TrEMBL record:
<feature type="transmembrane region" description="Helical">
    <location>
        <begin position="98"/>
        <end position="116"/>
    </location>
</feature>
<feature type="binding site" description="axial binding residue">
    <location>
        <position position="29"/>
    </location>
    <ligand>
        <name>heme</name>
    </ligand>
</feature>
<keyword id="KW-0812">Transmembrane</keyword>
<protein>
    <submittedName>
        <fullName>Succinate dehydrogenase</fullName>
    </submittedName>
</protein>
<feature type="transmembrane region" description="Helical">
    <location>
        <begin position="52"/>
        <end position="77"/>
    </location>
</feature>
<feature type="binding site" description="axial binding residue">
    <location>
        <position position="156"/>
    </location>
    <ligand>
        <name>heme</name>
    </ligand>
</feature>
<dbReference type="InterPro" id="IPR034804">
    <property type="entry name" value="SQR/QFR_C/D"/>
</dbReference>
<feature type="binding site" description="axial binding residue">
    <location>
        <position position="71"/>
    </location>
    <ligand>
        <name>heme</name>
    </ligand>
</feature>
<feature type="transmembrane region" description="Helical">
    <location>
        <begin position="136"/>
        <end position="158"/>
    </location>
</feature>
<feature type="binding site" description="axial binding residue">
    <location>
        <position position="114"/>
    </location>
    <ligand>
        <name>heme</name>
    </ligand>
</feature>
<dbReference type="GO" id="GO:0046872">
    <property type="term" value="F:metal ion binding"/>
</dbReference>
<dbReference type="InterPro" id="IPR016002">
    <property type="entry name" value="Succ_DH_cyt_b558_Firmicute"/>
</dbReference>
<keyword id="KW-0349">Heme</keyword>
<dbReference type="GO" id="GO:0016020">
    <property type="term" value="C:membrane"/>
</dbReference>
<feature type="transmembrane region" description="Helical">
    <location>
        <begin position="179"/>
        <end position="202"/>
    </location>
</feature>
<keyword id="KW-0408">Iron</keyword>
<feature type="transmembrane region" description="Helical">
    <location>
        <begin position="12"/>
        <end position="32"/>
    </location>
</feature>
Amino acid sequence: MSKQDSSFAIRRLHSLLGVIPLGVFLIQHLLVNHTATRSEEAFNTASEFMGSLPFVLFLEIFVIYIPILFHGIYGIYIAFTARYNVGTYSTFRNWMFLFQRVSGVIAFIFIAIHVYQTRVQVFFGTEVDFDMVHQIVANPAWLVFYIIGIIATVYHFANGLWSFMVTWGFTQSDRSQRVMSYVSAVIFVVVSFIGIQAILAFI
């Protein structure tokens, strides 16, 4: 396999992991968090259920953390080696390309801190429940950080869907790509609303 073919294959894998499993997990995670809008007890029940799934540690490592590390580290490599031409060609897609890279870096930092504040603390005897999240976002600075992180992560996922559809050959015509741009925008708005509404419920 040539270097060009290898790079193309890695980019396809990077795109795939951003949607499956990471995109699926993102939506599932936000929906679990959204149970906090119903009640503290509803969130604790949902969180306990997710934490008691069979082989949960195996699933977290191989379905979430390893894909996140690969997608995030390779994504940062792309972000810092890509050529940006928005100053010369200020088209909509060029700006989306730039925002995709910026949002990816923000999302990677946000996810790393979020994992440390929640999942890593489990190993120190802290329970993942409503009170844990409340204590974090009760601090206005952390609340703003979480809102920015959620918006950046959801944007990265939603816009990444557009790239995924192109990369994997599902949308080849200009019309199909334009339609997918609208679909991505709707997904961004809807999922961002769910995520922000969920985090505000912990205050």
